[in-house]
Structures are given as structure tokens and as C-alpha cells.
């Protein structure tokens, strides 16, 4: 090797070493604990095993197992965190290091530029009058790596504020976009509510919420009314933002009052009607009210008409139509977006989703391939190309299609068996505890039932992990 080549190679190695050291020195911007569900499952299995050991007179082993389950496992759960350093997110902690050493997994890390999808689900945990308590679950995926982040206080809010603004718009779904723009701490929302002088929940509970944003009479009043002043426009903007912040925090009744005032302050524009439609969707879900869901769809239709050529808002409206179960209106809105801008990535993905629900694989392939062509983001193009190739194999190879259908059917059956086995475990433990006081035979039967169900549950858990991944096409060639 010549001297110049050796110098260049050494300098390249030095640069790589400096890059690794800079990654290690990069400060943590935000971090959140990993969801404790898997750790609780491990602790429950170990506790159940210790009870069986105690019944078989292995007291020392039972005590050790209980200590590990309720001392060491919770400590590992508290120390297992997802960390964001401004460039990438990674998982770290002693529990994850143990999993790495046992299963030989590589370091779980993903840069923001490699994110492919960011999807958020909202689960209602409590409902009190016009308010609900939401627990958000954000799933980030890319390059075969997946992170699941569950809400749980200020740490989650800080991670959302620091991470989501750096993610490309087309990678976020509607709920993730709402969290990025409107999630804030409860104290700030409370202060804004007080400054806006919104009515209290007690008063709002006694009033009838019946807002009208459309109709010929309403439209005629808007045309005859004088133009809104700059002060009214600013006030409507602030009320709209407050309404969205209240909606994201679960204070739906107060959010409705904020939107009512915003709708009365100025002639409602497309964005205001769209946000109001999403509030109606949240209220319909919280109250299980089909009438509110119908009104949400009507507001979305009005928003799509007033959006005209807004290429940012129209795909969001189409996605909201899908959330409301209106595929026909979603297709019309997204197709309108594509007609206006053939290179709209979110509209293409939405049309692919609709085509998949209708079983039109050829249309699914076409929209994914078009989405891969129109985007300049490498991660988005990689995701759309991979999905297009998967459905292309399904469409062209009947054997592969049959294999995937069998996998999905087995996954559904295994999921049902796992849920049934968990209920049988609880019933068996209850029978063992209660029946043991009445008759030792009943206690033994209860422990036997619970033990058998626990074995089934463990096997189904492993089977779910195996069946969740798609089959490799090359293995069937």
C-alpha cells in the first residue's frame, strides 16, 4: 500500500472513530420509560411460578423467585428508557442489555431521517362528565425497527415537543400531528381557559351543545355580515388553538365551547371546520353517539368544499373521513387532491389504504408505486416501495397469497386463544384461592387449570411473535 493511500485510510478511520465518540457524547434531549407491560407479564409469570413452587414445598426457591419478580423486575422496568438525543432515538437500560446479551440482538437505534411512519392511537381510560382521560400510544417504525412510546406525564409531553417537529409531515398521521401542534402541559391549558373566560364544566353540562356551521341560512348570514375585524380574526385563531389543546387533553365539553365561540367570532374557514369536525369525532367516540358521528362527517364534507385547492388540508380531511368510516367521501377527497397535485404522497397512501379495504390489489400496487416515485424523502420512498413490492407478490403469486392468508388466519386464531387462556388463568387462580378454603380438591383443580392455561398462554405469546412478521417471498420461489 502506498504512503498516500495509507494516510487516507487512517484519516477515514479517525473520522469514523470521532463520529462514534460524538454519538456517545451527544446529550439526551428527552427520554421516556418503556411501557411496563412486558415487565408486568414477566413478574406475573414468575409470581405464579413461585406459588407453584410454594405448593410443592420449595420455599427457598419460591422466596427467591418472588424477590426477583417484585424487586429486580420493577427496577429493570424503571431503568428501561427510550432516549432522544436530537438526532436519533434509542433504547437503553440494563433490562434491554440483558435481552441483547441473551438473544444477540443489535443495538436498537433509529435516526429521525430514517423514520418511515409515526402513528398514534388514543385509548380512553376514564370518563367524567364532559371530560375523558386519554392515554396515547405512539408507534415509530423504520428500517425494520419499531419503537412504542406510551404517554405518562411530562416526560412524554417533552419527547413529543422535541421529537415530532423534526419529523417530515408526510410521516405523521392525524393524531401524531395533533400531538405535535397542540399537546401542552395541563397547567398552561388551565391558565388559557381561565383567561378566555370559558364557562365551567358544571354550567356546560346543563347546556345543550347544538352548533351549526353550515346550511343555507348560515351561509346567507355569513355573506350579509360585515367583514371580520383583525381583532375578531385573532380571537378566533386563539380560540381555535385553545379548543384543539382542550380536545387533545380530553376536556371535550370545554373544547366544544371554545369552538362555538370561534365559529361565532368569524365566518368559519376550512381549517376551523376541520378541527371542529375532529372534536365531534372525539365526542362521538367518547359518548358512543352515532348522531355526533354523522355531524362530524357533515362538517368534514363542508370543510372539503371550503378547502378548495388546499393541498395540505385535503389529505388530512380524507384521512379523517377514513377514521369516521366514510370510504366514499375519503376517496373523493383524496382523488381530488391527486387531480390537483399528482405528486401528493399522503393522498396516494390514503388511496392505497382505501383500495386495500376494497380488495383491489392492482390499485394498491399502483398507488404505492406512484407514492414511491413522487416523494423526495428516502425513508418514505423506501416504505412505499416495500409495501408496493409486497402487494405485487400477493397479486402475482397465488401460492404466496395463500401462505399469507393462512398466516393471518392463524394469527387471528392464536390471538383469540391467548385472550381466552388469560381469562382461564384468572378463573383458575380464583377457583384455587376460594376453593382451597372449601375443599383441597377444588384448590388443586384450580391450580391445575391455571397451570395448563399459563402454558397455553406462553405458547400463544411465542406464536404471535412468529406469525406477526410477513412471510419472505424468496423462501417460496
Verbal overview:
The chain is of the alpha+beta class and 477 residues long. It folds into three domains: 26-34 and 80-179, no CATH class; 186-396, Serine Threonine Protein Phosphatase 5, Tetratricopeptide repeat, CATH 1.25.40; 399-476. 69% of the residues lie in helices and 10% in strands. The protein contains 20 helices and seven strands. The strands form two sheets. The protein has a four-stranded antiparallel beta sheet. A hairpin with a 2-residue loop joins strand 5 (117-128) and strand 6. Helix 10 runs antiparallel to helix 11 and helix 14 (313-323) packs antiparallel against helix 15. It is globular. The model has no long low-confidence stretch (mean pLDDT 85).
Layout of strands and helices, then pairs:
Elements (H helix, E strand, L loop, with lengths): L2 H23 L4 E4 L3 H19 L3 H21 L1 E4 L3 E5 L1 H10 L5 E3 L5 E12 L2 E12 L2 E6 L3 H10 L10 H9 L3 H11 L4 H6 L9 H9 L5 H20 L2 H14 L4 H18 L2 H18 L5 H11 L3 H14 L4 H13 L3 H14 L3 H19 L1 H41 L1 H29 L9
Antiparallel strand pairs: 1-2, 2-3, 3-4, 5-6, 6-7
Helix pairs in contact: 2-3, 7-10, 10-11, 10-12, 11-12, 12-13, 13-14, 14-15, 14-16, 15-16, 16-17, 17-18, 18-19, 19-20
Amino acid at each position: 500500500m502506498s504512503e498516500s493511500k495509507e494516510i487516507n485510510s487512517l484519516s477515514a478511520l479517525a473520522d469514523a472513530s470521532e463520529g462514534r465518540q460524538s454519538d456517545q457524547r451527544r446529550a439526551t434531549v428527552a427520554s421516556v420509560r418503556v411501557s411496563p407491560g412486558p415487565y408486568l407479564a414477566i413478574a406475573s409469570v414468575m409470581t405464579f411460578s413461585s406459588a407453584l413452587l410454594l405448593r410443592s414445598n420449595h420455599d427457598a426457591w419460591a422466596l427467591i423467585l418472588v424477590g426477583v419478580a417484585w424487586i429486580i423486575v420493577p427496577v429493570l422496568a424503571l431503568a428501561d428508557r427510550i432516549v432522544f438525543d436530537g438526532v436519533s432515538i434509542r433504547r437503553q437500560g440494563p433490562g434491554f442489555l440483558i435481552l441483547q446479551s441473551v438473544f444477540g440482538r443489535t443495538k436498537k437505534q433509529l435516526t429521525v431521517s430514517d423514520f418511515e411512519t409515526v402513528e398514534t392511537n388514543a385509548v380512553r381510560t376514564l370518563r367524567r362528565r364532559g371530560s375523558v382521560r386519554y392515554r396515547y400510544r405512539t408507534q415509530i417504525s423504520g428500517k425494520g425497527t419499531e419503537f412504542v412510546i406510551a404517554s405518562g406525564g411530562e416526560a412524554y409531553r417533552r419527547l413529543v415537543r422535541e421529537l415530532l417537529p423534526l419529523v417530515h409531515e408526510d410521516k405523521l398521521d392525524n393524531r401524531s400531528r395533533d400531538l405535535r401542534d397542540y399537546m401542552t402541559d395541563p397547567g398552561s391549558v388551565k391558565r388559557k381557559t381561565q383567561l378566555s373566560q370559558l364557562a365551567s364544566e358544571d354550567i356546560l353540562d346543563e347546556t345543550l351543545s347544538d352548533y351549526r356551521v353550515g346550511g343555507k341560512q348560515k351561509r346567507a348570514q355569513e355573506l350579509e355580515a360585515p367583514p371580520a375585524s383583525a381583532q375578531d380574526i385573532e380571537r378566533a385563531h386563539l380560540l381555535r388553538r385553545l379548543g384543539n389543546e382542550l380536545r387533545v387533553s380530553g376536556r371535550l365539553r370545554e373544547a366544544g365551547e371554545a369552538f362555538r365561540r370561534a365559529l361565532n367570532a368569524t365566518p368559519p374557514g376550512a381549517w376551523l371546520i376541520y378541527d371542529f369536525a375532529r372534536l365531534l369525532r372525539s365526542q362521538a367516540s367518547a359518548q358512543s353517539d352515532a348522531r355526533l358521528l354523522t355531524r362530524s362527517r357533515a362538517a368534514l364534507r363542508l370543510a372539503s368544499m371550503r378547502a378548495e385547492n388546499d393541498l395540505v388540508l385535503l389529505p388530512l380531511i380524507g384521512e379523517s373521513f377514513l377514521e369516521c368510516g366514510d370510504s366514499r367521501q375519503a376517496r373523493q377527497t383524496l382523488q381530488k387532491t391527486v387531480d390537483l397535485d399528482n405528486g401528493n404522497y399522503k393522498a396516494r397512501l390514503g388511496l392505497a389504504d382505501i383500495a386495500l379495504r376494497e380488495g383491489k390489489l392492482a390499485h394498491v400496487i399502483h398507488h404505492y408505486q406512484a407514492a414511491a416515485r413522487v416523494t423526495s424523502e428516502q425513508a418514505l420512498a423506501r416504505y412505499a416501495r416495500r409495501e408496493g413490492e409486497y402487494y405485487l407478490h400477493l397479486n402475482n403469486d397465488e401460492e404466496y397469497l395463500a401462505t399469507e392468508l393462512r398466516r393471518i388466519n392463524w394469527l387471528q386464531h392464536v390471538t383469540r386463544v391467548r385472550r381466552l387462556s388469560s381469562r382461564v388463568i384468572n378463573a383458575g387462580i380464583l377457583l384455587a384461592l376460594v376453593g382451597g378454603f372449601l375443599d383441597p380438591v377444588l384448590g388443586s383443580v384450580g391450580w391445575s387449570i391455571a397451570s395448563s392455561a399459563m402454558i397455553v398462554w406462553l405458547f400463544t405469546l411465542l406464536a404471535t411473535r412468529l406469525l406477526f412478521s410477513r412471510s419472505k417471498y424468496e423462501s417460496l420461489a
